[in-house]
From TrEMBL, chain A:
GO terms for molecular function: ATP binding. Residues 6-236 form the ABC transporter domain. Keywords: ATP-binding, Nucleotide-binding, Transport. This is ABC transporter ATP-binding protein. Coiled coil: none annotated. Belongs to the ABC transporter superfamily. It holds the Pfam family ABC_tran. It comes from Geothrix rubra.
From TrEMBL, chain B:
This is Cobalt ECF transporter T component CbiQ. It is found in: Cell membrane. The gene is nikQ. InterPro entries: ABC/ECF_trnsptr_transmembrane, ECF_CbiQ, ECF_transporter_component. It is a multi-pass membrane protein. It comes from the Bacteria. The chain crosses the membrane at residues 53-72, 79-96, 116-139, 237-255. It holds the Pfam family CbiQ. The keyword Transmembrane applies.
TrEMBL record, chain C:
It comes from Geothrix rubra. InterPro entries: CbiM/NikMN, PDGLE_dom. It comes from the Bacteria. Keywords: Cell membrane, Membrane, Transmembrane, Transmembrane helix, Transport. The chain crosses the membrane at residues 39-58, 70-96, 102-124, 170-193, 214-234, 296-316. This is Cobalamin biosynthesis protein CbiM. It is a multi-pass membrane protein. Residues 214-318 form the PDGLE domain. The keyword Transmembrane applies. Its main location: membrane.
Amino acid sequence: MSHHLVEVRELRHAYPDGTLALDGPTFTLHHGEAVALVGANGAGKSTLLKHLNGTLRAASGEVRVGELPVQAETLAQVRRTVGMVFQDPDDMLFMPTVLEDVAFGPRNLGFPPPEAEARARVALGQVGAAHLAAKAPYHLSVGEKRRCALAAVLAMGPDILVLDEPSTGLDPRGRRLLVGLLQAFTHTRIIATHDLDLASRLCPRTLVLHRGRLVADGPTRAILADRARMESWDLEAWPPEA
Amino acid sequence: MPSLAAALLDLRELDRLARLDTPVHRLDPRAKVLATAAFLATLASFGPREVSALLPLALFPVALAALGEVPFGLLARKTLLGLPFILVLGAFLPWVDRVPVLQLGPLAVSGGWLAFASLLVRGLLAMVTATALVAVTGFGDLCAALDRLGAPRAFSQQLLFLHRYLFLAGEETGRALQARELRAFGRPLAPREYGAFAGHLLTRSWERAERVHAALRARGFDGVLPARAQTAFGTGAWGFLLGWSAFFFLCRWLALPALLGGLLAGGGS
Amino acid sequence: MADALVSAAVGGSFWALSGGALAGCSRRLRRDEDERRVPLMGVLGAFVFAVQMVNFAIPGTGSSGHLVGTLLLSALLGPPAAVLVMGSVLLVQALFFADGGLLAFGCNLFNMGILPALVAYPLVFRPLDRRGHPAAGAILGAVAALQLGALAVVLETVLSGLTGLPFRPFLLAMLPIHLPIGLAEGLATALLLRFLRRARPELAAVRPEPAGRPLLALVLGAAVLTAGMLSWAASSRPDGLEWSVSRVAPAGADAPDGAVHRFAARLQRRTSVLPEYALPGTEPAGPAASRRGTSLSGLLGGAATLGLVAGAGWLITRGRRILRARPEA
């Protein structure tokens, strides 16, 4: 693929009980861009993210990753391109050791075990977690788990990183580490978050979801600072009033 | 069963021990599993009133634990947890069989007492050995060993997932119990509450499983975990397995303590 | 069931039986190809493990009960998956909590996994549930499963012949003990199913596939065969223990043959004659007397053996400590 971008057009998704979780958001992500996705609880952020790697399939509308429409036949390729870091790292890490876990994705991509392991070690190095390789995932701190989960995705060599609430549960030091890491990446990044400080540090552009609709798409600082509009979306302005 | 918190602590402690690096830890896990199986088979093959003949077998768990740096305090504690059941059942035996079979000076020991002692020794040996095995092998390696010894892949995979989510489920349940206790002031859980209490935990588990599944799919999972790194069954493993098997065989067919005791008694008289 | 109560023959047979069932269930699941089940089984196994330690008050009794979970898992995931999940839970308990035991694992999986999932679930729970009585199905199903389980424990113990507990009184003690346990299990299962079907109908609506007939038939056949064998033994031979021991474990109670053993016996005879301990009125040359003699020397030897083993353990620990200390010094 020459240019890595994500196109979402008129995406609609309804929950089994009939609630419309996504009501037609339309946007495009460009190569290497870092975009924040903000919105109150239940605004549809996680649902939107799940469409980007095909965990959920669009009821109507379209999601394209690069040249590929996200549909059953393209799932394997889409998931190789779009790396999804889940909100709760415990949902991701399950193998007996961190190294095996990080190598899990590459092995499923068909790499022979030594090569998968080598990729895993590189990815662990990228997130500063090489020393955790032999540990069991359930004995790690939240910050360590999150970095390992990030490595698990990086090891698959994605072009696009999708992160769901990456700073939840981190202490200030862990959060600083994470911001530093994410800043250094050149991947196209889309970050769903309540952490507006993180959004303003990492992402020049912000999308705002409100009740399933895309209500704002533009420069982060301008959007986050617009007190009246932010409050109308059940959010608070950033930076807060002095 | 121990309390939830104690159970989780023990799980963690055994996990920590399993990551030590000693010669027994480095052995192929299959050798340890097979030797343990031979041990248990030997132990179970003794007759109901054997006591002293079982004792040499203790060398196996003791050697495993000592070489693998397993604290004996932990072994003793784990073993005490399992004793009550044996004690309750065993307590009936002296009444069932009162025929004296052994005379110690003025004291006649009935077959029931001998059988009781035998049960105790068996129980202790079996429990100590199981604990020592996990402590020097680790659960992941045990699963891999079972897998390579021919256990169904669905089962070894299930064991891995279960062990992984034990900690989370245990902590979640513990937190929920604690939160309830803070408002319940010692009032026991009524059946009506139980449905909702355990039901919430169940739905949360279910939702977790769905997220785990989504995460697995996102990384290309197709229903089967990749096999773990393969190690060769080396000379060390063969030596361990054959050596111990020979020892068990010796224990079974030669009453070593009787020989020893005979020598001692004969020498003394 | 505990390791201490199981003889090699009984432990091995039930390992084979339960192992076969486990393999059968795994094959059935593989054919099913719903990989959603893989994490679900793991996470629900962890749930069952944790929730087994949550006790609730049984109304009107002052005692408390808890969930075992096989029937619930059968209703949620289908019997084959339930057998696999219970197998994993029991194995973890045997390994980490000295609960049950490795040798008795086959027996325990049979009693607590296979009987409820492959017998009580399809024969009691499902028919009642389909007719709209899930609570009755859960309670009757659990009681049936626990009674069968108690019977199986008695059979396994008596067949093992390590305790000498007589079949009938033992059974008559075990069945009533397991009645309230079964009621509690049924109650817990019914409550959880009701909660789930009300709160999250889409989860509870997952239709588990039916248990295969051949597997069920196999298990039932084995159970009936064992029960028949044993009741015959118990009625025709008052001394069921001796019979089962001599029948099941021929090398168990009696001295084994062989050149090595003959040599050992000769050695023992020569070295361990302790006439002062013989009871008056028994033939000095009889097997009973020689047994007493060897038993005492066995006691002596046992103490000496324990001393040796403990010494070996101490030496190893000590040696390792010294080896480890050396590089630092």
